[in-house]
Amino acid sequence: MTEFRGPFGDLPYIPDDLTIPQFFLDHRHPTRPVNTNLTPWFIEEGTGRKIGFEEVRARTFGFANALKIRWNIGERSSLRITSEIVNNGISLAGEDDVGGSHNFEPKIPPFVSSPSNPAYTSEELSYQIDTTKAKILITHSGSLQTALDAAKDSGLPPSNVIVIDTPTSNVPYVTLDTLVHEGLSQPPAFVERKLKPGEGKTKLALLSFSSGTTGRPKAVAIPHISVIANVIQMAVHSKVYLPAEQKRFRPGDVIPSILSSVSQSEITFEMAPHTVSDIYGIVVNLHWSLFSGFSLVIVPRFNFIQMLKSIQHYRVNHMLLVPPMVVLLCKSPEVKNYDLTSLRFIMSGAAPLSAELTRQAIKTLPTADIGQGYGMTETCTTVTFPRIDQKIGTLGSAGQLMPGVVARVVKEDGSLAKLGEQGELYVTAPSIALRYLNNEEATKETFIDGWVRTGDEVIIKEESMLFVVDRMKEIMKVRGFQVAPAELEGHLLNHPDVSDTCVVGIPDEYSGEVPLAFVTLSQDAQTRVKRDPSEADKIKASIMKHVADHKVHYKRLTGGVEFVDSIPKNPSGKLLRRFLRDKARELVKARDVGKAKAKL
């Protein structure tokens, strides 16, 4: 049987009787570096205020104690995660039975955290509240009205809405600081939950929602051990515990919490701190960073220019990005106005980063090591990680399988692919999630006998390097040949007039389907088109020639080029192709109508 494994051998022990906060606040693991610099855990981006370990512990206790006193909510174990950070929206599931057919779902332990993105509409947030049966909603004042609307739609009383910051105007809702001070002023009203051996594998810590690239997002049930295991895997792979032998990661380094959705047209991030909005931020940006001894700069909503200022001001060393943010760094003329030489490492995840875009990033940020990671909510984040011995990750690679990961590549006929052969990726690891909440059918399709079926078409090459071809459902078949949209998108981003792009297939009578490129123009190209509308056709022709000159005939943009103001993405930065597929169908219909009229 052909199976692929990470190259670093066995993992050290992974405690299965600890909750996530107990592991991070109370436990000493051999892979954790000793932070002799006593650097702060968090830095508030706007004020520069530093928050250290003891303050985190105190605020954790105060918050948990107040929740018990006010709402009789117990079990401190999962609460620390929510009180360690400034976030724009976390819903907390209570201890009611969440149901499930034929007793498929057990009860959720008290206070499972279900992070949500502040970019959500009230309808999206209400869907999450209803799915998780949330009892309390924690929100930033900037998202308060959305949270209140969602709470009302879900039957959640306003008294159960907590505002995490201190609003500039008076609002009749309890704030996080109020709860912390209230809890610290009272004697303990709760007893911390102690897990039995093995319970860390079954007690839920998170209900983190999948990206929803195919239909509505699904709540992924993640136990405490998954987060702990994934952090240990990354620590072993990146050797954070051996500072004398490697210089990429060092206790005292600075990393910002800046991953989110991007608006290309305004060059702004419509964002929450990514530390709490999805699994990439929760596990990698927050927990792995703190485990490694980094200081995490907590960033509210901000624009691209503010991000550049923060890198310069706080001398940021590491950045965890998604491809749209790399595009901005490579394309924006503002980058040259800021000192970014403190950057030592950049990892891109959540979607493939093309070889072409990597080359551009190398030129833009010459001081930084650059690589990719790969993972899913269902695997509790990282399956691969950038190699520690490479300044520039293997071009086109999604990184190296981490220790503890076992992978299979399944071909169309069901047989297992060998090294260098293509197929669908299945993985197993100590970090994988348990199931989808209240969705037995989807669970059976994805969680199979301890393996996660990823739905990604991949190739694994020498030294356990993973290459993601594309989502299987997104692969186009042109004249019987497979065409990966990500390959064309990476190439298109090399064109000077292209700021962002998404390629979809449209029906074609002869070829079956052909590629159509939606393109967001660069600022310079937009100016030229405004000055002379005929320039648009010239740019389209230039873009199509750019592909035709470098790609085989069946990969050419036979479906054409269409300009759009922005490319839709989910909060993780993944392209929402389904929206542009719908738009493409409308374009095809309009073209057919035009042809019919021309014949009359």
UniProtKB/TrEMBL annotation:
InterPro entries: AMP-bd_C, AMP-bd_C_sf, AMP-binding_CS, AMP-dep_synth/lig_dom
Record domain AMP-dependent synthetase/ligase: where: 112-437
An annotated Gene Ontology molecular function: CoA-ligase activity
UniProt domain AMP-binding enzyme C-terminal: residue ranges: 487-574
Name this protein carries in UniProt: Uncharacterized protein
Source organism of the structure: Meripilus lineatus
